[in-house]
Amino acid sequence: MVLSALALIAFSPVCAICALAVKIQDGGPVIFKQERIGRYGKPFYIYKFRTMRVDAEALGPQLSCSNGEIDARLTKVGRFIRNHHLDEIPQLYNILKGDMAFIGYRPERKFFIDQIMRHDNRYELLYQIRPGATSYATLYNGYTDTMEKMLKRLEYDLYYLEHGSFMFDVKILINTFCAIVFGKIF
């Protein structure tokens, strides 16, 4: 919690610039909040800088495109913010509140968890730990836009759950930092 508070202070100039850019883009809300399922299966709201049009899910829950594909729902500013992983900075507030940790599994929406559970009910094992702002699965599987990738991400998350340690977390943090600095698209 102390690290997340310090990081929020350190990144406050970047947050101000992102907030201004999002607001100028289309006048909509700066922060996007969405219910996710966290530790013990309890819902919480995850916070991010808004990168998509306000009506992005007018047709219901959808997964974002990955592997550098362009999602038509992204705004121009949103594409830049997302490509540089700046949209994730508000999750430091989630860490400060205790809803999330720096490292864990990426929290998902109940709609998609229900779909994953139809294929593999081991997802519930993840509820033992707090979800994270980054994860072992994100580093090696990227973001998920198909059920196949969601199930592969689950395998990585279960591996992390079984082998998690302080040194493993340090390795994930260092690799995440390097991936962001060197422009890896997740």
Secondary-structure element string: HHEEHHEHEHHH
Mean pLDDT across residues: 92
Biggest β-sheet: count, sense, barrel? 2 strands, antiparallel
Poorly predicted regions: none
Describe the structure.
- The protein has 186 residues and is mainly alpha-helical.
- Helix content is 47%, strand content 11%.
- It has eight helices and four strands; from the N terminus they run ααββααβαβααα.
- The strands form two sheets. The chain has a two-stranded antiparallel ribbon.
- A hairpin with a 5-residue loop joins β1 and β2 (43-49).
- The radius of gyration is 16 Å and the shape is globular.
- It starts with a helix and ends in a 5-residue tail after the last helix.
- The mean pLDDT is 92.
Write out key terms for the chains shown.
186 residues; two-stranded antiparallel ribbon; 11% strand
Describe the SSE topology.
Blueprint: H1 2-10, H2 12-26, E1 31-37, E2 43-49, H3 76-83, H4 91-97, E3 101-103, H5 110-119, E4 132-134, H6 136-141, H7 147-163, H8 166-181
Parallel strand pairs: 3-4
Antiparallel strand pairs: 1-2
Helix pairs in contact: 1-4, 2-3
Concise description?
The chain has 186 residues and is mainly alpha-helical.
